[in-house]
């Protein structure tokens, strides 16, 4: 259910990051941190490559969430003030962005009765206002400057680079792949010609626009004033 997906992305995934922040200083030995960070970084790349070949919109967003949480896990394991701060910022930003993407995907599913990307093309012509929210969600998902997603990712990448310069290759590859599939998701769902089954798609309702506003507004406010997190 869409409500479960939104709660999972916005809250439950963040409980894991919070648990690592609280438990890592005492319960994880130094020798275990190295392979765990390596697996987390490898997971970022693997989930990104999986997203590139996904045709199911909801599965694509879910794998994207796992990839972002790989960055959070690697940052929290290093246990420096800079990495913890970046992890908290990225968790908040991702909670809003991923929940917004899940909700947008469900709106298309209710109108097309399918989650296949190819069957959702051309939605800009049917719901032009929702295209603006799709653009906001896609750009924040790929960490466009000056959103809080970018601030969190930059802090995490800087911390990982200071910890080991080799990580810059994995983080750079992960962020590049994220940008590719985020733009591909936006262009596939919004550009092109409407399918025969989508020509009678009804426009966005007021409650749907309100839900999107309640996601986009905090992202904008936190981008303008990051001190609200602290």
From TrEMBL:
How is this protein positioned relative to the membrane?
Answer: Multi-pass membrane protein
According to its UniProt record, this protein's enzyme class is translocase
- Record flagged with keyword DNA repair: no
Q: Mind telling me which residue stretches traverse the membrane in this protein?
A: 33-52, 59-82, 88-109, 130-148, 168-188, 209-229
Q: Which UniProt keywords apply?
A: Electron transport, Membrane, Mitochondrion, NAD, Respiratory chain, Translocase, Transmembrane, Transmembrane helix, Transport, Ubiquinone
Recorded E.C. number(s)?
7.1.1.2
Record-level GO cellular component terms: mitochondrial membrane
Reactions performed catalytically: a ubiquinone + NADH + 5 H(+)(in) = a ubiquinol + NAD(+) + 4 H(+)(out)
Task: Identify the domain of life.
Answer: Eukaryota
**Location(s) in or outside the cell:** Mitochondrion membrane
Q: What does this protein do?
A: Core subunit of the mitochondrial membrane respiratory chain NADH dehydrogenase (Complex I) that is believed to belong to the minimal assembly required for catalysis. Complex I functions in the transfer of electrons from NADH to the respiratory chain. The immediate electron acceptor for the enzyme is believed to be ubiquinone.
The protein here is known as NADH-ubiquinone oxidoreductase chain 4
Q: Which gene encodes it?
A: ND4
């Amino acid at each position: 259910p869409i409500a479960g997906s939104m709660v999972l992305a916005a809250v439950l995934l963040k409980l894991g990051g919070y648990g690592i922040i609280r438990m890592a200083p005492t319960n994880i030995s130094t020798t275990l941190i190295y392979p765990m960070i390596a697996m987390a970084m490898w997971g970022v790349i693997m989930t990104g490559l999986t997203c590139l070949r996904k045709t199911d919109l909801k599965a694509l967003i879910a794998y994207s969430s796992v990839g972002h949480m790989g960055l959070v896990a690697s940052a929290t394991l290093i246990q420096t003030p800079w990495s913890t701060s970046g992890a908290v910022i990225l968790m908040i930003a991702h909670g809003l962005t991923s929940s917004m993407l899940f909700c947008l995907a469900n709106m298309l599913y209710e109108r097309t009765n399918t989650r296949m990307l190819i069957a959702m093309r051309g939605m800009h012509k049917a719901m032009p206002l929702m295209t603006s929210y799709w653009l906001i969600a896609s750009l924040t998902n790929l960490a466009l400057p000056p959103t809080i997603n970018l601030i969190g990712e930059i802090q995490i990448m800087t911390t990982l680079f200071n910890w080991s310069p080799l990580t810059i290759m994995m983080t750079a590859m992960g962020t590049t792949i994220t940008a590719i599939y985020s733009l591909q998701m936006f262009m596939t769902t919004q550009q092109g010609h409407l399918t025969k089954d989508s020509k009678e798609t009804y426009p966005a309702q007021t409650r749907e626009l309100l839900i999107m506003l309640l996601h986009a507004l905090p992202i904008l406010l936190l981008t303008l004033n990051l001190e609200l997190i602290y």
